[in-house]
Amino acid sequence: MERRTIAVPAALVKLALPFALLVVFLGGWYFGLPERPGGGAPGDDSVWTCSMHPQVRQPQPGLCPICEMDLIPLQPGGGTGLREVEVTPEAAALMDLRVSPVRRGEAAVELHLFGKIAYDEREVTTTTARMGGRLDRFYIDHTGTRVRKGDHIAEIYSPELFVAQGDLIEAARGLAQARRAGTAAAVATQGRLLRSARERLRLLQLSDAQIDAIAEQGAPSDHVTLFAPQDGVVTERRVVEGAYVKTGDPLFSVAGLDSVWLNLEAYESDLPWLRFAQDVAFRVEAVPGEVFHGRIAYIDPELDEARRVARVRVNVDNGKGLLKPGMFARAKVGARLAGDGAIIDPDLAGKWVSPMHPEVISDGPGECPVCGMDLVPAAELGFVAGPAGRGGDSLLVPAAAVLQTGERAVVYVRLEGAPAPVFEGREVVLGARLGGEFVVLSGLAEGELVVTRGAFKLDSELQLKARPSMMNRDAGLRERPAAEAEAALFGQWGAVPRGLWRLREAAMAGEAEAVRAELATLGAALDRVETAAFHPLTLDLWAEFSMRLKNALAVARRDLDEGDLPATYRVLRHAIEEAGRHLGLPYQPAESPSDLGGGELAALRETLDAYLRFAAALAADDEGAAKLALPPLAERLGEVAGGRLASAGDLAAMRDALRPVSGSLTARVRQGGADRVGVLYRVHCPMVKGYEGGDWLSARPVVENPYFGAEMFDCGTVVENLSFEVKR
């Protein structure tokens, strides 16, 4: 084959060379992938799926193994969110999509419940036979008879009682004779016999007056009178006149009516609005125009499986005697929720309540006068004065916007700024429902537009594309090894497994406030993750799993408020492991050492502050500022570590001395100051000291290279989160 040589003018070559370099640079920028800790780039995530069976995903084209249709390409990520759906304005109109704003307002509801008045079981007394015998006289003609304490109720003939009375009379006579004889020993002996005989009759339920009368009479009686133990109504007659009874047989029951119970029935949707000690107003038809009040004393922990209701018991004062057991009542319970789910009740805020008798309310601590139990703060029962102290008004979303499946709820949000309508699916954590709205605990922000009509159509689109949706939250996702972890994310993640370890320790120790502090620290660590340098695929994945992590934090806080400390750890443990597996990040709890004492820790913080000022001056190429920051740092480092640094005379020497100082401070933070010295990251540049590489410390997850300054200001990678401030 004949070869032809084409001569290219030198001027053209000079023009083409910069253009070629530009193409290479832009190609690398467009196609290049970020550096990974393991040295590799993320694999090809192209997926082929079936439009009819989105659960089918294959790495290459072909036919669907179910319906044999041609597979279609699917490329999750790539700058469009995993849960984003873009539609044209025409398609949006055909789908009849409607949106409504998420609003912040007062979460209030008025519950209407139905119930019935019943006897207060605490006021019911049953009298039993203290001796065997025959019931010769029963003064109670029928149940419902009103009695007063001390009224005659019944007379019992009892041979056992006859013998006991004889013993008492003989003991009384013996004591009198011993006193006449004047023998001290005989008096003491007869006195013991008399006390024993009196105690025996007392145990047979005779009063002191009855016992005194028996002792004074000359002969025993074979009958004893029983008296009413309290004021009230006879609710039950267990025996009839003339019946023989044995010791311990119940005879009759008397119920007091100074207080009664109101038994209500509440549906599942009503329960989030009900609390122990909450005020309940109600009416009865027998007393028109009168509004009665009581406080909730019991909420059944189990629902009636057939009727799907829970019993709610209200303690009611009935000093006027207007309420009668068996009356029907219509109750009204008004409730307002603060932003964190607490009930707003100014009347109970700051008060102390009996844990057994909610009608007992005090201005300060003490004991319940009824049961003797210690009073508890009303705040522990979920009551606050107003929204200002507990999270403000609640975030409310229209119920029509929520797609629920099992424990998960999904809402579609209209994204702003896009030329065409773009909607994003969000998993949210819901609180109580009030009418046509839900309280939102996590996942949405005030003012966002949510789809209230057509949301399921958008979700179906994601299902067809095999992306995370309401039906399958893990569609299109895969677990990634550590070699594929995004370096920019890996370097900011360290605070999460350390926080998980502290959370576990606090939950196992039962330290609720420590658990609350760790949840706040984990939330702050997630919020501070800088995403500007993320690869688009990692950005999509982080948006998905940071959403799940923040939702898990909301659920954990709710579990903490309910007193379930182990659940707070379990829910975070599962969410962090899920995120770690899909992002290639460590997810096992990592122990956070705290060996430094208070003085040593304060000294380390001061040293780090001086170091950060010095490093910032080097990064800015400001030799004057570096020289001003150098002496305080050298002084705090000591003679050995700070000696070389103190002798540095120019920028080059100071930069050369920075590397060992950075390594020394990194080791000290790891040994005892992790998560105790503020926010601190380790950044690495491979170009330092002839490609040996060098680290420096930064208070932000950004690259501002102190070794090169403006020459290579952005050279480096955030490789480790050394510390994240923990509120202790």
Overview of this protein structure:
- With about 725 residues, the protein is of the alpha+beta class.
- Among the domains are: about 40 residues; about 90 residues, Beta Barrel (conserved putative lor/sdh protein from methanococcus maripaludis s2 fold), CATH 2.40.420.20; about 140 residues, OB fold (Dihydrolipoamide Acetyltransferase, E2P) (Beta Barrel); about 100 residues, Four Helix Bundle (Hemerythrin (Met), subunit A); about 130 residues, no CATH class.
- The chain contains 15 helices and 34 strands.
- Strands 4, 5, 6, 26, 27, 28, 29, 30 and 31 form a 9-stranded antiparallel β-sheet that branches. A 6-stranded antiparallel barrel has the order 7-16-19-18-17-20. A 4-stranded antiparallel β-sheet has the order 8-15-13-10, with no helix packed on it.
- Strand 29 and strand 30 form a beta hairpin.
- Helix 3 packs antiparallel against helix 4, helix 12 crosses helix 13 and helix 12 packs antiparallel against helix 14.
- The N terminus is likely disordered.
Any chance you could write out the topology, listing elements then pairs?
Elements: H1 10-31, E1 47-49, E2 57-58, E3 72-74, E4 84-86, H2 89-94, E5 98-101, E6 103-105, E7 107-119, E8 124-128, E9 133-138, E10 146-147, E11 152-157, H3 159-181, H4 184-203, H5 208-216, E12 223-227, E13 232-237, E14 244-245, E15 250-255, E16 259-267, E17 279-284, E18 292-299, E19 309-317, E20 328-337, E21 343-344, E22 352-353, E23 361-362, E24 376-377, E25 383-384, E26 394-398, E27 403-405, E28 408-414, E29 422-434, E30 437-442, E31 449-453, H6 455-464, H7 487-490, H8 495-509, H9 512-527, H10 536-561, H11 565-583, H12 598-619, H13 623-646, H14 651-673, E32 680-685, H15 688-691, E33 694-698, E34 717-723
Parallel strand pairs: 21-25
Antiparallel strand pairs: 1-2, 1-3, 4-29, 5-31, 6-26, 7-16, 7-20, 8-15, 9-11, 9-14, 10-13, 11-12, 13-15, 16-19, 17-18, 17-20, 18-19, 22-23, 22-24, 26-30, 27-28, 28-29, 28-31, 29-30, 32-33, 32-34
Helix pairs in contact: 3-4, 3-5, 8-9, 8-11, 9-10, 10-11, 12-13, 12-14, 13-14
